[in-house]
């Protein structure tokens, strides 16, 4: 039986995580700390994968179902929705590496060394070589 908003709101967190299944791979994961996250379980190339759609109530039931349907359409086309999402994130430049590359020229190598983000030439030479 598909989930309803009433069932979602009335279900309380317990000592172990609870999965409230909606159908076609979509479920709401209730964690012991009270947080609720939408998950989509799917298989591609014989491997089971998991995709997160956000937290409830920020992502309501209808939107989670729409995201599930979009992911299922991608799967039907032979596209892995998780891999596609990662590629889009890298293309946007929201990765740690991209942000670090922006920060380093603005603040200089000295600031990176003070913050412990870059090796110091004087310390690198002082380290003993272990064989």
Provide the fold topology.
Blueprint: H1 5-10, E1 18-23, E2 26-30, E3 36-44, E4 47-55, H2 61-76, H3 81-92, H4 96-114, H5 121-126
Antiparallel strand pairs: 1-2, 2-3, 3-4
Brief write-up:
The chain is an alpha+beta fold and 131 residues long. The protein has helices at residues 5-10, 61-76, 81-92, 96-114, 121-126, and strands at 18-23, 26-30, 36-44, 47-55. 11% of the residues are buried.
Characterization of this structure:
The chain has 2 domains: 1-79, Integrase, DNA-binding domain (Double Stranded RNA Binding Domain, 2-Layer Sandwich), CATH 3.30.160.390; 93-124, no CATH class. It is α+β, with helices and mostly antiparallel strands. It contains 5 helices and 4 strands; from the N terminus they run αββββαααα. It has a 4-stranded antiparallel sheet with strand order 1-2-3-4, with helices on one face. The mean pLDDT is 87.
